[in-house]
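User: Assemble these into one structure.

Assistant: Restating your components, then the assembled model:
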Amino acid sequence: MRSSRSDLLEVYELLLRSYGEQNWWPVDEEYHREHGTDPREEIVIGAVLTQNTSWRNVKKAIENLKREGALSFEGVLNTPLDKLEELIRPSGYYRQKARRLKVVSEKLSPVSKVESIGREELLSIEGIGRETADVILLYAGGRPYFVIDAYTKRIVERIFGVRGSYEELRSWFEGNLPKDVELYKEFHALLDEHAKRFCRKDPLCEGCPLTQVCIQPSR
DNA sequence: CCCCAGGCCGCGC
DNA sequence: GCGCGGCATGGG
């Protein structure tokens, strides 16, 4: 495999230069200041809500939770299940997700657990798979786990010819990048942005900022 | 009408 | 370990 540490870092630099800082994970800091809630709980809740769902729809659900004072573990646990389902309905799979929000809120309380919980233990919680676990560890826990998603897989397969299982890709990224939490956060966000702008299912190779490092530009 | 979106789970093989 | 169907709303 030709792709090396420097190639991967170059991709990061190119994306950062093209799109600027993404500042993921988006959280309403002011809301949490005013309500005395922990913004890390919004990250966990958002991570569950966004499973196979557009962020646009998730935002509607989050707004509903805010309006009802339920954008926290305590808020989720104090909201009756049928009410919770109603609030998060715009995010899809709302019956599944309402139950999972209850389970996750209970198992991750207090939210400081995100600093110490083991990845395997996180994965044993209903509703938390590999990607959601790594989102929680990285964005809520500030721990160096690289998040892989469908976009990430598509991009590295196209530009480097690299493919593999979730765990294989995660260790590929982590092995080819310095262990830097802020880098991991920003890089993942940039990859998602790039997948939406250029590296779509039907790629728009014209004007792509990664043409110079891609093994198969303009198909 | 179609397809997709910041996946996960349970099942069969 | 891998592939599949079910889960559901809202946009393009």
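Residues 181-197 of chain A form the longest helix (17 residues).
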